[in-house]
Amino acid sequence: MARISCDVAHCEYNCGGGCRLSVISVEGSDAYAHDETLCDSYTDNSESGCVNCVPEDCACQNSEIECDAEECKYNEDFRCNADRVSIGENDACTCSETCCRTFSLK
Q: 95: phi > 0 → left, psi -120 to 50 → alpha, else beta; which?
């Protein structure tokens, strides 16, 4: 389980810089750098309108991360074992514009 920090302002699940999801999916099976990964759980908040959240809604303190970035040192059997994970980019408007900043090559 990891603590998620999210800078993706347009994501429906962003809650004050955290994530309301208890499980997210990071893609990038061929990634060798953080900018070759993406948060597959991203959903643009314009698709469902503005979402208000309160800290109690935020799962960011205890989230599971499914990860297929095989070359990341934190990937263990397709699960992220990092204590803290940072998802970005702030101006992302699609899933493919996001990334896992915590990615670190083995």
A: alpha
Answer yes or no: is 105 within a domain: no
DSSP readout, 5-46? EE--TTBTTEETTEES-SEEEEE-TT-SSGGG-EETT--BTT
At 50-69, the pLDDT tens digits run: 555 655 556 567 789 999 99
Residue 106 belongs to some domain of the structure: no
pTM over 0.85: yes
- Phi/psi at 41 (nearest 5 deg)? -85, -5
Report the number of distinct structural domains present in the chain: 1
Provide the domain limits for residue 31.
Answer: 3-100
